[in-house]
Amino acid sequence: MIDFGEHDRLGRRVTLRPVDDDNWRAVADVAPRDDQRAFVAALAARYLLLTMRSDVWTSLAVYADDTVVGHVMWGVDDDGSRWIGGMVIDAAEQGRGLGRATVRTLTAWLAEAGQPIRLSYHPENAAAAALYRSLGFHPTGAMEDDELVAELPTPRPPA
Question: Nearest-CA neighbor of 145 among 28, 56, 39, 50?
């Protein structure tokens, strides 16, 4: 379990856990709002299949206390950078700060490797752009397929 003490606006503790025999169905059923389907898969099941068929990505279940509320995946690129992808918070759970808590939890954990952390989002996804910018991600100018790449500066060790 990945736990950095983050909570949503309802006070629920947000943790990231491996997808396993007990939670995979709940993760697979996570679905965004209809207006978000231009930017993310209609069901998190697509991301689960991607991680099963790829050596690059690892899926994690997003929990609020003991309830599955979303999906996020992470991977390591050839240059050692860490990537965040496939984040979906269930439509019924949105607006509660879960996306923010998920990214903060995952970036805190990934930062332990001391490598840049990157993600990408569609240029028309204003909500994602605002969220990532508010968390310190900066557009790099690079594109990944049809998405903008953003990077969280590598934390420097104390002097």
Answer: 39
What pLDDT score was predicted for residue 156? 54
| Residue reference for tokens 């700060």 | 97
Query: Which residues have C-beta within 8 Å of that of residue 28, sequence separation ≥ 6?
Result: 43, 44, 45, 48
Backbone angles phi, psi at 141, to 5 degrees: 95, -15
Beta strands, E only, the chain: 14-18, 57-64, 67-76, 82-89, 117-121, 138-144, 147-152
**What's the pLDDT tens digit per position in 54-64?**
888 999 999 99
Instruction: State how far Cα 87 lies from the chain centre.
Output: 4
Give the pLDDT confidence of 16-51 residue by residue, as tens digits.
999 999 999 999 999 988 888 878 877 778 888 888
Compute CA distances 56 → 19, 78, 82, whole Å: 16, 10, 10
